[in-house]
Specification:
With 169 residues, this protein is α+β, with helices and mostly antiparallel strands. The chain is 40% helix and 12% strand. The protein is globular, with a radius of gyration of 19 Å.
Length: 169
């Protein structure tokens, strides 16, 4: 690891220690590693499965049980540092983009997930009637479709009724 990579990694630790403490969590190596993995993913794919988080955290720590990763993610989610996203037919994923009420676009072909800014237009369907007895604190909107790589293949399959287009899971 180059010295600049080491400084960047140390910077991540120095940023994440106060985040954990401010959230009321003990600072532990597994929590720092899990949070760092999710922070790095935010710039790229952004939505990681538990298996991916565990594999990447193990590279850093050497050894980390799956249960420890689940425990870290539960603790981080519980204090609002991590968002858990669950799309029908897909494994649960985690991200550190929290508190901005963004939406997701999921490709039915390859499963790629993309963050979207809040949906625009008339939100009437997003406002439940007040008579239902709930105080709404979160709304999740998921748009399903085909990414630019999968759309051409899907249109070819759609023209062939012997091969229906189905979600990947």
């Amino acid at each position: 690891m180059s010295s600049s990579e080491q400084r960047r990694e140390l910077g991540d630790v120095e940023v994440n220690r106060p985040r954990l403490r401010a959230a009321g969590l003990r600072v532990t190596r597994p929590r720092l590693a899990v949070l760092r993995v999710l922070d790095r993913a935010r710039a790229g794919q952004g939505h990681l499965t538990v298996a991916t988080v565990a594999a990447q955290a193990r590279i850093e720590l050497g050894s980390l049980s799956a249960q420890a990763v689940y425990d870290c993610l539960a603790a981080l989610h519980g204090v609002g540092l991590v968002r858990r996203v669950e799309f029908a037919g897909h494994p649960t994923r985690y991200e550190t983009r929290v508190g901005d009420h963004h939406h997701h676009l999921v490709c039915r072909g390859c499963g790629h997930i993309r963050d979207l800014a809040r949906a625009t237009g008339h939100p009437a369907c997003l406002t439940p009637p007040t008579a239902v007895g709930f105080v709404v604190d979160e709304v999740e909107v998921t748009f399903w479709g085909r990414c630019s790589r999968c759309a051409p293949a899907a249109s070819k399959l759609a023209r062939n009724p012997a091969r229906p287009v189905l979600p990947p899971y």
